[in-house]
Design goal:
The complex is a heterodimer of chains A (108) and B (150). With 108 residues, chain A is of the alpha+beta class. In chain A, 31% of the residues lie in helices and 20% in strands. Chain A has helices spanning 11-16, 31-40, 53-61, 90-98; strands at 25-28, 47-51, 66-68, 81-85, 102-106. In chain B, strands 1-2-5-3-4 form a 5-stranded antiparallel beta sheet. Classes of the chains: A alpha+beta (108), B alpha+beta (150).
Chain lengths: 108, 150
Amino acid sequence: MRLAAGEDLSASVAAANKVDGPAGFFLVLRYEDAEFFALRRGVGAVIEYALSAGAMKELQLSGVAPRPIPRGLKSPRFQGDELYVPPDAFALFDRLRRSGEITVRPVP
Amino acid sequence: MTQTLRPVGDAVSLIRKRPEMYLAAAPPSGRELAARVASDALLLCATRVRTERQGPWWVISADVDWLARPPLDDPTELFFRIVPFPEGGVNSMRSEVLLTAFCDAVVTAEPAGSRTIVGSVPPSDPIWGVVTQVPQLKRVVAFRVAGEDR
């Protein structure tokens, strides 16, 4: 809800909400995977982040790039990749969002 | 933000809608489901896990009640939710919800009693004798996959 309303990313919230793996902000590239992660947190909704080419370029220069979603012994077969934004890239991500290079909307 | 967030539906419906994500192969196989649940029990510290076929039923039992572990207060919620499973590695989930999604009957027993999770299982069904006959076992889960008669 806070993210859909345009709130900045927060390292402390990310750390508090961590389930497994590293703390950070994770965007998956396929809706099917987003549904899984929403439900793994109990009740959730899917929101869509649209990144401009310029935003992707800046993020990639900071080391934020699509990668396969890590799998454990008991993971589903994910349908796509993820974009992992570590806490030290939150400020860049938020700046790109505030400038309109990244837009956010609930999936209808 | 003028648009409304739409909650994702329930876990069981989602899994049924996308079996290719949650099963090795379709149609659902009792053997695969049994292996998944039994390995959950092993990863959760059971040292004795038994998997057997009893007529149309698959029965998994263990010396540890692997359902009665955090984070849920009511272990039967495991059959209806996607629950994180850190012992299974990153981005993992517990397997019990797969039984609810793909089986036409699921029952479970512990020393304190037994109950039906999915389907209608009459008191005369032989499975009730199976799930309650080994008192040293702390948990038994039995399930039946539709169309998979012995």
